[in-house]
Amino acid sequence: MKSLLLNSGVSMPCIALGSWAGSAPKERARASSWLLTGLEAGYRHIDTAGLYGTEGAVGEAIRQSGIARQDLFVTTKLPWHHTKRVRESIEESLKRTGLDYFDLYLIHWPQTLVYENDNPTPLNADGSLALDESCDFNDTWREMEKALASGKVKSIGVSNFSIKTLEQLLKTAKVMPAVLQIEIHPYLVQNELVKWCKDKDIVVVAYAATGYAVVREDPTIIALASKYNVTPTQIVLSWHIGRGTGIVTKSENVGRQKENLEVIELHEEDARRIDALDKNRRLSIKPDKQGRMFGWSFDRLGWQEEHAPHTEVKL
Ligand SMILES: NC(=O)c1ccc[n+]([C@@H]2O[C@H](COP(=O)([O-])OP(=O)(O)OC[C@H]3O[C@@H](n4cnc5c(N)ncnc54)[C@H](OP(=O)(O)O)[C@@H]3O)[C@@H](O)[C@H]2O)c1
C-alpha cells in the first residue's frame, strides 16, 4: 500500500481503517471482528481514539491477525478531558490495546473539557459541556513533545485544528505536528488549510472521507464512476489520494473494506471537476443549537461558517 512520509521520518500507510463504532459498549466490543476482516483484507493502518472506546477491540484484532507489530501503523488520540494528563492517558491507551507504542498520537480536539471521574462528556448545571479554560493546547502540546521523547509515541499531531489554532500552537511548539486529521470530502475540500499544511510539511488525513451517500449520489461523482468503471466511493477516495492526503474510512463490511483499498489515478481535469463540487459543508459532526462544536464557536475553532445549513445526513 502507498505510504506518506511524515516529518518525523516515519512512513504512514495512506489508507487507514477507522474504528468509530457508536457509543453502545456491545457495538464497540464487536468492532474487533470487523477490524480483523479489515486487517485480513490488507489494511495496515488502524485509526482509533480514547474517546471511541475501541482501543481494546483494536488490540484484540491485531493479536488475532498475527501481523507483526512493525508491519502495522496504529493511530490513537488524546481525549479532550485528558489534556492535562497526557502521560497517564497514553499509558491507559497502551494498556487497553496491549501495545507498547503508538505510531501516531493526536490531540483529538483543540478544546479541553473538565476531567471528572473520567466522564468524556462532563456537563455544567445548564446542560452545556463543561469546558476547562485553565489549560490550553499549547500546554498540552508541551506534554505531547515529552511523550514523543519517551518513545511511547513515534509521531505526534492534531485533529480538528484550523489555520487559526495551528498558528496559535506554533507560537510555542518545538516539534511541528506530523499530521492534521480533519473532515474532508468533495463537499468540504478545505483547499486553503490543505495548502497551508503542505507548506509546513504537515500531512493531512481526511476523515468522513467518503462524504457518505450525499457525495456518492452526486451526479458528477456518478458520471466519473461510470467513466472509470469503478464505484462512486472509489472515485472520491482516489481524489483524496491524488491530492496527497491520507484517508480514514470505516466499514464493517469486508466487501466495502476491500473496495475502499482500491484507488485509481484520476486525470487532472477530473480531479478539478471534483474540487469544483465544494460547498464548504460539514457532513460528519453537527454543531449544537447554539452553533457550537463541543463547546467552542466556529470562530474560536477557526472554522469557516458553512455555506449551507446542516441537514440530516444519510450514511
Ligand atoms: N478525528 C476526528 O474527530 C474524527 C471524526 C470522525 C471520524 N474519524 C475517524 O474516521 C473514521 C471514518 O469516519 P466516518 O465513519 O465518519 O466516515 P466514512 O468512513 O467516510 O463513512 C463510514 C460510513 O460509510 C459507510 N461506507 C464505508 N465505505 C463505503 C462504501 N464503499 N460504500 C458505501 N458505504 C460505505 C459505512 O457503512 P458500513 O460500515 O456498513 O460499510 C459507514 O456508515 C472513523 O471511524 C474514525 O476512525 C475521526
From TrEMBL:
| Oxidoreductase among keywords | yes
Q: Where is this site: Lowers pKa of active site Tyr?
A: K77
A molecular function annotated in GO for this UniProt entry is: oxidoreductase activity, acting on the CH-OH group of donors, NAD or NADP as acceptor
Residues that, per the record, bind substrate: H108
* Record-annotated NADP-dependent oxidoreductase domain positions: 15-278
Q: Which residues form the active site?
A: Y52
* Keywords on record: Oxidoreductase
Name this polypeptide is given: Aldo/keto reductase
- The species is Rhizopogon vinicolor AM-OR11-026
